Amino acid sequence: MKDLLHPISLVVAVLGFLCLLRDVLTRRRDPASMALAAVFLLSGLSFLFSITPMWEYLDRVLGTVNLSVPLAQGCVVALIACQQVVLTYWGSPPDVARRRARAWLGAGLAVIAGLLVLFALLTPSAPRPTDFTLYYAHDNMYAAYLTLYVTAYTIGELFLARSCWRLARHSTRTSVRVGLRTVALGATITLGYSAVRIGDVIAGVFDTSLAEWENFAWTCGDVGAMLTLIGWLVPTITDQAKNVRYRFKQHLSHYRLRPLWLAFSNEAPEIRLPVDQGGPAQRRRFRSIGFKLYRRAVEIRDGRFVIRQYLEAGVRQSSEAHHRARGLSGEELNAAVTADQILAGIAARKAGERPHPDQLTDFADTAPETSQPMDDIDALLAVARHLPRQRARTPHPERAFA
């Protein structure tokens, strides 16, 4: 059962670490992010060390049989401490969090040191990658080793479940609440592993065995660990999915604004903003979709300013009557009228026919309500939707940065 579940858990841990890697690189000074990444790394190592082929490989290379036991369980103790560091920074003021985090990490290091000392006092005679606990269950030194490990493991999981449920009740973000409750559920399930290991210690005293419970122990341990890792990932994956959707919307908006931008830039090429390419960092910024979308929106606004003096009130009135007859109203009506005004204004500028001052007007959507970064873009997109799509050749400067 161990060699069936551990590789699956290892894959979950590796994928989770890769998902967090970007956040780690951008939040190097955030202790919670670093500790959470360490949880996934240490979890992956604990599963890796416990898989039979790796267990046997370490025995051959290091010359000490069963050394995978303290390596894997030391990683487990360390990740339990790191999980508490994450929760401490999430739920406490910075000064208090730093003090509590040092206490948790210190306790974890003390337990790991004790495990190494007790393991060194064992007399392992042969590699036991599949039944190590059952084989040594009657050894008094191993009973002490297992008691220390299971005690630390159980206390850590109990604290984890309790803290996650408490924080979940106070969180305002749905993804965080779901993630913390999933972590708490996983931590609760792992207590089945603790119960069997405690039973192994007691059974050794009475010279009996819990061999029939081994599969249950590994199932609880691995399933609980996977749920815990998945729970930690829920807020991160949710945020990354939102970022992907936002970036996709930016790319789509940039493409859909193209007809509106071309309408202005073909008539008034002076609206195209010069871009001075400097070093590599600046060139990367200029290539980013956020910069290109912002640049396109600014140039469209400049184009509107150029043709504003060619807007005739009669065009606006006739356009409003036409689109009202089509059933348009509100912001959609204003966007459709603005599109007609743009086309008429560009044609008037091209012909040099400026309206009489008494006949001048403004765009129908002059003051759209905007509260979010993409609201202004959405207002421009509404206008672009009402422009007739025509094939147009992109001017040379746009090709360099579009």
Tell me about this structure.
By secondary structure, the chain is mostly helical. It has 2 domains: 240 residues, Up-down Bundle (Rhopdopsin 7-helix transmembrane proteins), CATH 1.20.1070; 145 residues, no CATH class. Helix 1 packs parallel to helix 9.
Layout of strands and helices, then pairs:
Layout: H1 2-26, H2 31-50, H3 52-62, H4 68-91, H5 94-120, H6 132-136, H7 140-170, H8 174-205, H9 214-256, H10 258-267, H11 280-287, H12 289-307, H13 313-325, H14 330-351, H15 375-384, H16 396-401
Number of distinct beta strands: 0
Q: What's the CATH H-level superfamily name of the largest domain?
A: Rhodopsin 7-helix transmembrane proteins
Order of helices and strands: HHHHHHHHHHHHHHHH
Q: Which radius of gyration do the C-alpha atoms yield?
A: 32 Å
- The CATH topology of the largest domain is given as Rhopdopsin 7-helix transmembrane proteins
Number of domains: 2
Task: Using the 3D structure, state the CATH architecture of the largest domain.
Answer: Up-down Bundle
Question: Helix tally?
Answer: 16
Instruction: Give the CA-based shape.
Output: elongated
